[in-house]
């Protein structure tokens, strides 16, 4: 696996590409002279955690013939303040899936991802606690 980063401006904006050739923009915050032209590196880590666990969960549920109509993930991270490096100390993930799903199978798929399969989670566990909630919205159900 290899990624390449190319500086776009004279500040902090880079374009990164991986093996698939997809371009990801990375930038710093305006507070340090960035221009909000891309995601910040620590945001990318949270996105990586959400994406890694999502892939695991979808693979597990597909094997169990579970139909996922929609799948949304919110990842919130809290960093250690006043220290350099400012690593994540706690992360909360909310998984919201809809469809004719078996809630126990969804719950188990999330557990397997975060406790066994997700490489990104295993890296982040070194500095952070990771907890999660799971919401299953049944097909035809309305949210209040």
UniProtKB/TrEMBL annotation:
SUPFAM superfamilies: OsmC-like (SSF82784). It comes from the Bacteria. Gene3D superfamilies: 3.30.300.20. One of its GO terms (molecular function) is peroxidase activity. It holds the Pfam family OsmC. It is an enzyme of class 1 (oxidoreductase). Keywords: Oxidoreductase, Peroxidase. Its EC number is 1.11.1.-. This is OsmC family protein. It comes from Pontibacter ruber.
């Amino acid at each position: 696996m290899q990624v390449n980063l190319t500086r776009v401006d004279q500040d902090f904006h880079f374009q990164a590409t991986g093996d698939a050739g997809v371009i990801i923009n990375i930038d710093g915050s305006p507070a340090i002279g960035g221009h909000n032209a891309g995601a910040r590196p620590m945001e990318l880590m949270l996105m990586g955690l959400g994406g890694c666990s999502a892939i695991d969960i979808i693979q597990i549920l597909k094997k169990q013939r579970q139909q996922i109509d929609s799948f949304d993930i919110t990842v919130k991270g809290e960093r250690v303040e006043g220290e350099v490096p400012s690593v994540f100390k706690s992360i909360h993930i909310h998984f919201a899936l809809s469809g004719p799903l078996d809630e126990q199978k969804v719950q188990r798929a999330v557990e397997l991802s975060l406790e066994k399969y997700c490489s990104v989670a295993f890296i982040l566990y070194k500095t952070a606690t990771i907890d999660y909630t799971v919401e299953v919205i049944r097909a035809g159900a309305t949210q209040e």
